[in-house]
Amino acid sequence: MVRLTPLRLLLCAAVALCTFFFSSFIPCLLRRERGYDTFHERPSARFRPVPNVHFGEECSPFTAGVLDDVTLVLKIGAGEAVTRLPAYLKQRGRCKQDLLIFSDRKDNYNGFEIADALAHLPAEYRSNNPDFDVYDRIQAADGPETVPNKSDDGWRLDKYKFLPMVEWTAYKRPKSQWYIFIELDTYANYDNLYRFLASFSPKSAYYFGSPVWPEKGTVFAHGGTGFILSRAAMDKIIALGRTFGEDKHIPGTHFFGVDMKKQCCGDETLAQVLKKSGVPLRGYWPMFNGEKPSTVRFDKEQWCEAIITMHHLQEDDFTSLSQWESARLNPNKPLTFEELFTMIEPHLQEKAADWSNLSEDVFYTSIESFDNCYKACLKDGSCMQFEHSGTECRLGYSVRLGHHQLPTDERKWTSGWMLGRIKTFKQAHSPCHGAHFVHANP
């Protein structure tokens, strides 16, 4: 009989722990699985009293007052004040949110003040910078109808607006606790946004969004997908900004010591300055999502997860999504990708002409027909869909709807979905037992 001395007991415990670590934790890392908590359908009173919120009703978090300390910050181009802002305010601005609008030209629309984020920059920031030739033309225009659109020359100014916009926001809304930065093509699910924010205290410095991982440099939240700063994060970046400001009482007079001419993007530069302020990004993809319903990759990573934002929606996308939301069977439940899939599923078919379903995981240039492309997909057990463009066969390992694609001189797109495999996937992963609140990465 072996005598269990204290040393042997300790060694046995160590072996057991190592076995658990290598059999459980390491495989999860190799499979890159995300941890998650269950999204609370009705947040508890962790940081504040919780009134009764009628989830699923339009504007419910605003009507209940639970987002009274939240400021939405909308960044637009000067030309969009005429082309896109009116429709945005009519459809998505009717919840009486606390809304700030920033552009590259001062304006006003239906009582909403549009601030010029670049108005207070000293002349030396604009001199010898051809990007600001666009700014000068915008200011000289007779009206917003004649200024360059964001899709034209106006985009060159976009990166310059981020840092002044953040400073201006803190100056204009010093008592707000959360700041949500969005664009005209950003969808926000306000029910899930409230559920998300209820898990955090604005007294801690937070910077949330969908992470972009550059090869070199700081991980940053993608601007168009929407990002969030807490009150404490705002305080930190403003404290850093005071060391650079030309006038300590007027925000937007500097770029925090950054030479913006050499920078790629404003959202990336903002992340660099926030990190220098002691506020790194906490990434919550896929809840903050850079796709819209027709381009989302539906798979095991995007199924039970809750949806907070989506991006790249045009007016017809907003309209169809709004109509679908109004007919949800359980609107009081957190919106997930599993439920959103029911919006696109009726459009999936074995063969769709003049259609690209955005398959992009495997490419074959030697497969010359749709039927042979189908056979390649059938042979690949991971393939959920495929498309043939006349010159190329592409396989997709996720399910995506895609878009209408007209033929060109040499190419004609035809797409197909593996309906049996999609059914099997749903049977394996549904129903979801609560919406997933993914753990931050980074």
UniProtKB/TrEMBL annotation:
GO molecular-function terms, A-Z: glycoprotein-N-acetylgalactosamine 3-beta-galactosyltransferase activity; nucleotide binding
Biological pathway: Protein modification; protein glycosylation
Every Fringe-like glycosyltransferase domain range: 165-238
EC supergroup of this enzyme: transferase
EC number: 2.4.1.122
GO cellular component: a single term: membrane
Keyword Protein biosynthesis carried by entry: no
Pfam family, one: Fringe
Compartments where located: Membrane
Sorted UniProt keywords: Glycosyltransferase, Membrane, Nucleotide-binding, Signal-anchor, Transferase, Transmembrane, Transmembrane helix
Predominant location category: membrane
Membrane topology: Single-pass type II membrane protein
Stated family: Belongs to the glycosyltransferase 31 family. Beta3-Gal-T subfamily.
Name this polypeptide is given: N-acetylgalactosaminide beta-1,3-galactosyltransferase
